[in-house]
Amino acid sequence: MIESFAVVLGVALLAGAVVLIKHRFWPPGPDEEPREDVAEYISMMVGVLYALVLGLALVSVWDTNSGAEDHAATEASAAHQIHLLAAGLPSGQDARMRGEIETYIRHVTETEWPAMAEGTPLGPTGWRLLNDVRATGQVPADATPAQQATGQETLAQLSVLDEARRGREADATERLSPVIWFGLIVGGGLTIAFMFMFGVQRSFTHLVMVMGLSALITFTVLLIYQLDSPFQGLFAVDTTPFTRYF
Fold this sequence. Notes:
Strand content: under 5%
Largest sheet: none
Number of helices: 8
Distance between the termini: 30 Å
């Protein structure tokens, strides 16, 4: 958090220093127009197009982050339901089911979450543990109707958990396109650069405009950067949905 605000402040101060240097060594002439029609039109188009790129990037990373939260919550809820349904399985099978789903949860929270935060592959262990849970959920042929119904519901919850896990894995590897990042950086530079091309007579007004715009653009780009990694950074999805139940 402190680093992000330091970057925003640093960019704003740098832009302000450039404004002061410009007015000190290249002040606008007495006959210079504050704006020219062509320059004003081009500046407006650059600003509009850059706003579209910012909006596209922000919506994209926000959807990914929200999807990661939903997938984690769904996966934890399905695991909790399986843990509760184990009580309705045949004797011996119930304790084995609870132990295996707890082992899976420990693997997710203690091994997979740090790996997702570092951007490393998760490996096949999680799926192998889920296969063990699925095998334990198969009730024998001589089970009572209630136990068979519990087994079917357990397998249904396993399907929900399986789908949520696939979504979580996809969220951990999904990143904003490099093309959009190129547009964010170049567009931001162009938008700020256009602020130096007009003959603003009052240096204080020019200073406030450039510093404010630079700080706002830097803040928005940093926000997109933080949201682009759902499992790391300021807005990281944590293991709370799992630790709430287990």
